[in-house]
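Hey all, sorry for the wall of text incoming. These are the two entities for the joint prediction.
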Amino acid sequence: EDQVTQSPEALRLQEGESSSLNCSYTVSGLRGLFWYRQDPGKGPEFLFTLYSAGEEKEKERLKATLTKKESFLHITAPKPEDSATYLCAVREGGGSEKLVFGKGTKLTVNP
Amino acid sequence: GAVVSQHPSWVICKSGTSVKIECRSLDFQATTMFWYRQFPKQSLMLMATSNEGSKATYEQGVEKDKFLINHASLTLSTLTVTSAHPEDSSFYICSATAGQYEQYFGPGTRLTVT
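and here's what came out:
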């Protein structure tokens, strides 16, 4: 059973067309939900960490929010350079520092 | 800050040989480092977790004798793929964390076994 599910798998937007990516999770004792951006052939780039329901964080055109069951990554007025795969990961309760990753959403922003 | 490097960025080797990949945290001391494997168009698969000075903890299904991990210092971990075969060809990525904070990832190493 997947613990982290991201949707949609792929998303095509026109430049300036705002949208949201979803990450739902079923882990217990959440100790952090993480968003990363990954460009082809590169390692993931850290974007945000969220720890508790109601928390929000922003960076440029990106805004991440968290509820008890899911997180959203809102992209406002995207540009072509925002095209990438966005990965969501959660850290479970207990002492482990392991992350459980979703399969990602591939975002394409057309000019 | 929080820069992680990997070397080499890509490597081609012949079947049966061994390959070593280095992962370094450049501007912080990493209490824990992780090694991932990523197949094309798939997400990251955790292979092992390593803490400085202790044996690595491998995920289920990962061969310990094939993927040797050494975490010699707080800034360096190495992954050695022993007796590599074509099915070991993949994108290997390391990450590092300083305590229970974010994991910062290296740029990855593309391994091709011929």
